[in-house]
Structure formats: structure tokens, C-alpha cells
Amino acid sequence: MTTQTEVVGRQTTEAKSTIWLRRLRALAQVWTLLALMIFFSLVSTSFLHPNNLNNILVQVSTLAILGTGMTFVLLTGQIDLSIAALVTLTGIISAHMFTAMKIAEPWPTVAALGAATLLGIISGIASTRFRIPAFMTTLAMSLIASGLATWISQGRTYFTISPVAQFLGSGRVAGQDSFRILPIVAALCLLIGFLVLRYTRFGRYVYMTGSNPSAARLAGINTNLIIGATLAISGFTAGLAGMVNMGRLGSAQPQVIDSFLIDAIGAVVLGGTSLSGGRGGILQTVIGLLIYGTLRNGLDNIPQIDPFMKQFITGVVLLGALVVNLLFAGRAGRDRT
Amino acid sequence: MSESPILELNHISMRFGGLQALDDVSFDLREGEVHALVGENGAGKSTLMRILSGVYTEYGGEYILDGQPVKLRSPHDALYRGIGMIHQELSVMPELSVAENLFLGRQPYTRWGMIDWKMMNRVAEEEMQKLGFDIDVRQPLENYSLGIQQVAEVLRVILSGARVLIMDEPTSALSPSEVERLIELTNVLRALHKRSIIYISHFLDEVMRVADRITVLRDGRKVSTLDSESTSKSHLISLILGREADATLPSTEEHKGGISLLSVQNLSAEAFNDISFEIGAGEIVGLYGPVGAGHFDVARTLFGMFRFDSGTISVDGHQFPSNFSARYAIAHGVAYATESRRKSLFMDTANYANITLPHLNRIGGILPQYHKEVSVARQAMEAVNVQPCVPDNTVGTLSGGNQQKVAIARWITFPPRVFVVSEPTRGMDVGAKNEVLSILIDFRNQGFGVLVVSSEPETVLAVADRIIVMSRGKIVSELQNSDDLQKDALMRLI
Question: Domain range holding B413?
């Protein structure tokens, strides 16, 4: 809700009390996050330990990179289902070029990121030129990408990866125990996304395209170009996520990790970005990511919980969090219809 | 025709806030009768129709069906009691076959629980033939003309058991031959099927031919109910307008404005045909027509929102390519405000962002600058007197009239050569109307060309220097506006 809160913040004619009420509602996700953190710090002694907080950051970093691109796409009212497959494909391209073809860096990285971006652009062109919903084009693209990954790798796993990926995924700032590079990459990604969405003309066009496509076209915005560009951005961030993921794991596998897709969409929407476009933003995505990370990690820190119950509990708490969000933001949402 | 009414409305009144939409209106419908409702926009026809069809359920007065007072709960309840509505915008399913459309929601089943296609197609064929249409009912409905689609909709409502049909502007989108067929259809319906029809239309010639009786509404009151045989078109017009009609038509004059800014030559598309006109510098041209005449589509086409098949559009002598975009139109001096504010404004977004959106590239480069934007927007809002003039407020917080001013304020900072505006004053009170119209006159006085597209005769008469009248996709007349030109002259032409 960047534009939304921004607007609310600058209201001059409304009564102060309404402004506060609206602010409270706009912050619904923050309350959810705080509630979860307080809950886990009470029931688990290890949760608030700095090491564990650091763990949360590392755990959500890959998701944060994916979520940045996904935020752009969702804001235009579209969706990108190809990101998990693109993550796999970039890893395979980079590893294959580096290990099997013995091509020196930076080319494997450039080629991998370029391929992911290119596939995003192709999805964009297919969606806008031929008016196929991005849902379908990116679904097809996900098959294409995972198919390419399988074909290039011939089904094998690469255990040698390029130093660039290693640095991004498991490098540290200084010595052995210092801060990891990965969260910094993720934070940079989010920051750039935030600045672009909030302060550039392109960012404004993204919001307007999602908020009211016909009005955007009437104002002379090339909505096709905007949608295509967001899919290209999402392709690029998926590529970047693929590099860091490979670096983190230390290997490149041809199997697609499907949870990346659902988790990225889940975190972005949980933060408050609307699936129908026009509302939300990177700040919301950050909150959504933290809620997601807290939830996943928090349950791991309660030893009493049966590990076979974790997924079930995650689902229940997630549903609860969504309901809480809605209760907070619900009135505001209804007022707008 | 039996004399006992099957449907009666007694002393119906209805208010919307401060507006008395209907005031003590009584209406009755006999079996096998076509009863027409006529009146200007805002006379109360739509409100009455919505009460009749069960959309509005809170009103004063009595609704009597077959001699019994009833309280309709919903349009569905109305249909259940035999009152069916044919909307101006058809609600057929184009992809389904003709037969499927006729049996929508009530498909016959075989005893195995499967859809009985044989029976469905046979009955559909028979029913269409009874009305004089020998067509293949297995074809998707979209393969047939709009006229046939309308027949299918009428037949569907009848087959679902409606004894009373309410037809809202049924002919506005039809070609002349299709209109003839529809009039025949209404005759068949009343003679063969013993249905009663409430017929709402702007086309008075058509109304006089098709209706047995005509009820005239004006300003929410019933003026009179007349037998159509014993009345004349000019008498009807005078009743609709509430004063004596001017019998003589003003003469058509040639345009003698300044240099031509916009030139449209032989423009044709799906919704209109062979449209040619020019707008000179410092001239307001009114494009008037009833709803469905295609004039709004002409406006959309000028802004690149609607493809055209043939013809040319030129601004300042520069001819536009065949599929230009809205961006292209803006860059070449065309501005456009649609008839739908909801479609053209971002209600949840601040005024300033709405106003600067088309010109962001000229206001702040790659990075929009909030302060610059607000000051640009404030100037534009002050120029058109948006109240309250707070650039940071969202558009949704403004009244309808002020929203319209925001839609216009968009084009003030970087003035276009030609400003196309559709229904600039729809749904506004008199004060707001006059303000908006005077803004358009200001535009003209600064030497720009303005095209006012409207279905409200008052609007074009109030501001236009010249009026082009469209009906059913064609230009039927071009008039020089003057104080003598009255509404009835425009209404007579369509």
C-alpha cells in the first residue's frame, strides 16, 4: 500500500481520528508479524537469539528476491507462475557452462541471468501481443524452463558451481562468522524494487495499470509494455534467486523446487499486495516475508511440536494470519467498493 | 384486445435523496396491448421500468397484478410472476447455440438425466418459425445479426413464461430493416401469443407505429396517456417537452469556422458508417444522437481506443495512421474525457496523480517530482474550480461534478488541439453542469477545437456552435446552433 499510505499520510481535510484508524488498518500485517514474534519468543527460548534471527533472514532471502519481481507482476494484476522453473534453469545453465563447457566467469552468470530475463520477456510478449493471460503463458514458460533444465543437464546434478554463485549464496562479508552476503543481496534487491516502484515514472505506471487498466490506457499509458516489463523483471529476479539458491546449496539440480512459487506468491499476498493489482508494494512484501519466515522458523524452535504436524500447523496459522489481516483491513477494503 | 388491465401501478412515488424521481405516477397495461413509455432523459422512465421489473422494491404506491396487489422482491420474482425484461444491452450468451439460449437455465432433460437436445432443437426451431425466422438453431447465436440475437432474447423471456414484456430501447442498435422486423415481431407477439408489451423508446415514429397507447412522463410526473391513433408526433413532442413545439426545422448551414483543426473523412467502423466532419479552431461541435447511435464510438475512435475500418482522421492536417494508440493521439493534440468517469479516473488515487498521469514525461522526467506535480495539479484544479481543491485527496472523495472537472483538468496544463468530451454533464446538478459547460466554452475561446458528444439535447444545445446529429451509426443532419434551435428539432431528426 505504498501509494495508499502515502496518500493517507498527506490527507489534510480528514479528521485526525479517521486518519489514525486508517493507519492502524494499513498496518494490519505489522500487527500480525508482531503477534507472531511475541508468541514465539514466549513459547521458545531460542527464538529471539541473534543467531536464530539471522537464520530467519537467511531463510527468507531467496524468497525475498523472488518476491521483489512477483510484487511488480502482481501490482499490474498479472501473475508469474514460471519463477520456480526459472530458478532451476538458471542454476543449470550457469553450472553447465562453468563445469561442463569450462567457460570462465562472468559468462555463465551473464548467460543464466540473460536467459531468465529473456524467458520473462517472451512470456510478456505472448501475454500482451496475443492477449493470452499471463497465468497461462507463464505456466507454459514454466514447463519450457524446466524442460530446458532437464535437457541441458540430462538429468544429472552438478556439484561444482561457479565462484560468483558461491559468493552470492554462501559468501560472508569478512571472516568465518561474519554476516552473510545473501541477506545483503536480498535487501539490495528489495531496496531497488522499492525505489523503482515508489519514485519512478515506471513505478507509477505499474500501479496505475493494475489499479484501472482502461483508465491507464485512456491516460496514454502503454499497458502492454508495462505488463511485459514487469514479467521481464520477474524473470530477472527469478534468475538472481536461481544463482543464490545454487550458491547456498552448493550444487545445481535439475528438479524444480515447486514450493518457491507458492511461497513467493504467498509471502507477497500475505503482506497485503492485492492479487487483482494496483494495491500493495515492496514494504508490504517485506512484512509478508518476515511473517512467513517467522512462522516457518518459529515452529522449528518449539521442540514439543511433533515434526509431522508442522506443515499442518503452518497452514492453520497462515489461514489465521490472513483472517486477522482481513479483520484489520476489512472495513477499509469494503469502503472502496 | 381485452379492456381489463393485467397490470396496474397506482400513485407510484419514489425519491432518491433530494430528487423526486417519480411523483404520483399511475400506469396500466391491458392484455395484448403495446403500451409505450416516452419522455426525456431523467423523466422517470428508467425508474418506473425498474419498479415494474422488480429491481426497486421500496417505493410509495400500489403495484397490482391480475387484480391482486403484489410486492415484487426481485427481478427473478418478477419473471416468476410473468413479467420479463428485455434490456437494451442484450443478455444472451453469444457462444451458445440459438436453441441453448432459448432454453437457458431450463434445458429439458431425457429420463436418463441428460439434456434432451432433440427436443430442445425441435421446439426452438418451431418457435423461431412461428415468428417467421427460418434459421439453424444449432448454430452459435453469435453467427447471427444483432436483430436475430434480440429476437432470441425476446423469445427466451416469452418461453420462460412472461406474459408482460418490458422492452427498453429495443431498436437503438438495430439497422432499419431489423427495426421493421422487430415491429412485426411485436405485432405477432400480441396477436398470436397474447402478450402485453411495455415499450420504451426515443424514436417517436416507431413508438407511434407500434404502440396502442402512449404514456408521456416529464420530470417524474405523468403528463398524459394517449391513444396513439389519435395523436401526432408534434403533439407528443410538445407533451414531452412541456411547451409548444416549433413546427419549422431550422435550415442546415455550411460550416464557416476558422482553420480546420480536426478533419474526419468517411470514417467507418463496426458501430458507425461513413462519418465525415470538421472542427475549426475556436469552435465547439456537438455530436448528438440517441443512446446506441454510435456517436460515443466515434469519440473513442478519435482517441485510438477503437479500431476503424476505413476513412481518415487528421489533426492540423497531419493524418493519423490506421491503428494509432491513445498515446499517439495525446502526443498529436487530441484529448479525451469519456462518458464513464469510473473508467477514466483512478478513484483510490490522489487528484494530483490523476491529473498528471498523461503528462508525467513532461513534468518530471524519469522520477516524478511530488512538489512539481502537486503545483501543476493545483493550478489545473483551480482553473476548473474543483471543490475542495486539495491535490492530495483521492478522486473518490469528490462529488460527481467535481470528478468530471478533474477529468477535464487533466488536459489543461498541456492544452490539446482538439478536446473530445463525451457526456460532460451526465448526472450533475444544474450548478455543476453550467460550470463544466463554461469550462468547455473557455477552451473554445482560447482557440481550441471542442467536440461535445452527448445523448442529452440540452448539453449540445447549450454549448455547441454547430450540431451534428447521428442516428443508427450515420450522420443524419448538421445544424447551425442558434437560440431558436430547440430540443424538438433535434428529437425530430432521429
Answer: 260-493
